[in-house]
Amino acid sequence: MLLSYLHNFHNHVLSKMMSPPWRLPVSFLGILALAPMLILESTHPFVYTFGFTLLYIGFGILLLLAIYKEKPGARPGIVVRAIGAMGMYSYTVYLWHVPLAMVFTALAVRFNMVNQYALHAVYLAASIATGITASKLVEIPVLKMRERFFPSDSYGVTASSWS
Length: 163
Description:
This protein is an all-alpha fold.
């Protein structure tokens, strides 16, 4: 409700908060607000007391970052560019993440001495790497072959075709 109130009645506050030099520190604040929930057990007293407030703040900041885009001309950082480039392979990553989750679940049971957070990080990296590899080896060549044998009839919509 606080975000809605600020957005509707004090938009200048949010606009200033989401533009330089405040945007980066506010982003870090959002990450810090969400961090305890990644580390603590869900039954920890901190999680069900202050944790819910921190979740509210953290996800609220993420929402603000999505709503208030960076100013035109702002160059996205390397992380944003990498995530954007990975978007081409997102469907294949999506297809492979469940089989790899099953594999890593079996590994977690067998190697319970391994830090679970490290195992999740390896699972995430393996899912992305497997998805990109499968896309390059299977999906992209098959799509090129399909386009060669069955070319698309549509050539896109132009402004002149609407009149």
